Amino acid sequence: MNNWIQLSEKEKVELINRVSIATGLPNAAIEKDWWVTMSLRALFSCECANHIVFKGGTSLSKGWNLIERFSEDIDIAIDRVFFGFEGELFFGASIN
């Protein structure tokens, strides 16, 4: 999968076309899915990986294989503790 970066443009187009024919998926969806996968791999390889939550529809598709879907985005949350914030969160009116 990492070899994708090293392929020539012609080789990338040929590979995407072969996958498109085999799966029936549009070429753009195939390439976008590769980039989503690489982005997730990078995120979950960084030092904050244990503080990241991958959520939303794309997680149901890619993480749990519960739905078939290609998304425009990925939903990521990072635990605030990673940034040094702790304690209770208060929203709205202050408590006296």
Order of H and E elements: HHEHE
What's the helical proportion of residues?
40-55%
Tally of structural domains: 1
Q: How many runs of DSSP E, i.e. beta strands?
A: 2
What is the element layout, followed by pairings?
Elements: H1 9-23, H2 27-43, E1 52-55, H3 57-63, E2 75-78
Antiparallel strand pairs: 1-2
List keywords for this structure.
96 residues; mainly alpha; two-stranded antiparallel ribbon; 2 strands; 41% helix; elongated; AbiEii; Nucleotidyl transferase AbiEii/AbiGii toxin family protein
Summary, kept brief:
This is Nucleotidyl transferase AbiEii/AbiGii toxin family protein. The protein is mostly helical and 96 residues long. The protein has helices at 9-23, 27-43, 57-63, and strands at 52-55, 75-78.
Description:
With 96 residues, the chain is mainly alpha-helical. It has one domain (2-83). The protein is 41% helix and 8% strand. It contains three helices and two strands; from the N terminus they run H-H-E-H-E. The protein has helices at 9-23, 27-43, 57-63; strands spanning 52-55, 75-78. The protein has a two-stranded antiparallel sheet with strand order 1-2. It starts with 8 loop residues before the first helix and ends in an 18-residue tail after the last strand. The relative contact order is 0.11. The mean pLDDT is 85.
